Amino acid sequence: MELLGRSPGWGRERDTDRDALLRPLPQSWPPPHTGRSPPHHSLLHSGHQHSARHLSTSGETFAIRALIITVNCSVHAGILPETNSDGVPGGGSEGEQKEVRGKLADAYARHIAPAVKLDICSHEAASAGGIRRGASRAEWTAGWCAQFSVLLRRGLKERRHESFNKLRIFQVLSVAFLAGLLWWRTPAAHLQDRTALIFFFSVFWGFFPLYNAVFVFPLERPMLLKERSSGMYRLSSYFAARTAADLPMELGLPTAFVLILYWMGGLDPRPASFLLSLLVVLYSVLVAQSLGLAVGAVLMDVKQGTTLASVITMVFLIAGGYYVQHIPPFIGWLKWLNYSFYCYRLLLGIQFRDGGGLYDCGGGALCPIAEFPAIKAVGLNNHWVDVCVMALLLVGYRVVAYLALDRLQPR
C-alpha cells in the first residue's frame, strides 16, 4: 500500500466534492461493466452494504453519490489501492485491505456523512409534513353530520345482533319472570318485601349494563386506531354516534324487564307511577353504562376492566342504603358517589309519594311509612337533587371516556 501526501488543492477539491453531492447523477449512471471492477468497488461494497440496504428509495441515489465522493476523499487523503506484482488492483495482504477499509470509513465519516444525514433528514421531514397535511385534509373531507350519520347506521347494524341476541334476551326475561314469581302481588302492608323489590330494580339495572359496557372500547380498540390513523372521521363524531346507537339497543331490554316485574310484583298501579319508575330505571341504565365505558376506555383491557367493575359493584351494592342503613361517617361519602343509591331513593319516592301513608308498626299502632327503618335511612325527599347528581355522573363518566379515547395511542 502506498501513502501519498495531501495535494495543495485538497481543501478546494473537498468542497467541490461536497457540492457535487447535491447534484443529480448523470443519465449514464451506473457506468457499463468493463469486466474489471474498480479497485475501490469491492472495498466500498463490503464496508457500506448493510447501511445502504436501509436507505429509502429517495436516499439510494444520494448514497451512491456519497460512495463516489468517498473514493475521491480517500485519494486526496493519501490512500491508494494496493496492486499486485502484475499491476492489477486488488493485491495486498488481508491486514492491509482492512487498514484501507478503515481509512475509507474514517474519510466518509469526516467529510461525507454530515451532508448525507442532513439531506436525508430534510427529505424525510418534508415527506412527513406532506403526509400529515394530506391526512389532515382528508380527515375532514366529510362534514361532522355526514360522519355521524354513517357511523350511526353502521353502529345500529352491528349492535343489533349483539344487544338482541337470544342468550341475552333469555337471561333478562328469565330473571324478570323468576323475580316476579318471588314477589308475586306483594301486599302494601309488607313494606320490607316492597322495599326489597325496589332495591332489586336499582341494583340489577345499575350493574348489569356496567359489565356489558366495559367490553366495548377494548374490543373496538384495533378498529378505532386503524380508522382514526387513516383520517376517516373525528373522534367526536364516532363517540356521539356510538352513544346514540346504544340508546335503542340498551334501553329495550330494561323496558321489557320493568313491564314484567312491575306488574307481577304488585307495585303502585297508577300509570304515572309506572312511567316515572320506568324512566328512573332507564336513567340509571345510562349512568351505569357511562361508568362502564369510562372504565373500559381508561384501562383498555378486558380482564382489568371486569376486575375493577366487580370491585365497584360490591362497594356500591353494600353502600346502596339497603344492607347497611347506618354507615359510619368517615366512609359515608361512598353512598353519595353511588348512582344506584340515587336510583333507589327516587324509586322509593315514586312508590311512597307524600309520605306514603301509614303502616301497622305493631301492637295495633299506625306509623308513617316515612318512619319505616329501611325507608327512613334513605329518605323520601330531595328528588331533584338526585336527578341532578345522576346527570352530573352521567356527563362526567362520558367525558372521562372521551378523554381516555383521545389519548389512545398504538401499543
Fraction of residues in H or I helices: 55-70%
Q: Which shape, going by the Cα principal axes?
A: elongated
Largest sheet: 2 strands, antiparallel
Number of helices: 14
Strand content: under 5%
Global mean pLDDT: 78
- Report the end-to-end length measured between terminal Cα atoms: 54 Å
Quickly give the structural class: mainly alpha
- Give the beta-strand count: 2
Order of helices and strands: HHHHHHHHHHHHEEHH
Rg is: 38 Å
The parts where pLDDT drops under 50 for at least 5 residues are: 1-18, 20-62, 130-138
Counting structural domains, the number is 2
**Biggest sheet: strand arrangement:** 1-2
Describe this structure in words.
One of its GO terms (molecular function) is ABC-type transporter activity. Its main location: membrane. InterPro entries: ABC2_TM, ABCG_transporters. This is ABC-2 type transporter transmembrane domain-containing protein. It is a multi-pass membrane protein. There is one protein chain. The protein has 411 residues and is mainly alpha-helical. The protein folds into 2 domains: 10-137, no CATH class; 144-406, no CATH class. The chain is 69% helix and 1% strand. It has helices spanning 10-20, 39-53, 57-76, 94-139, 144-163, 166-182, 191-214, 216-229, 235-264, 271-299, 302-318, 339-351, 373-376, 383-406, and strands at 358-360, 366-368. A two-stranded antiparallel sheet has the order 1-2. α1 packs antiparallel against α3 and α9 crosses α10. The longest helix has 46 residues, at 94-139. The two termini are 54 Å apart. Mean pLDDT is 78; it is low at 1-18, 20-62 and 130-138.
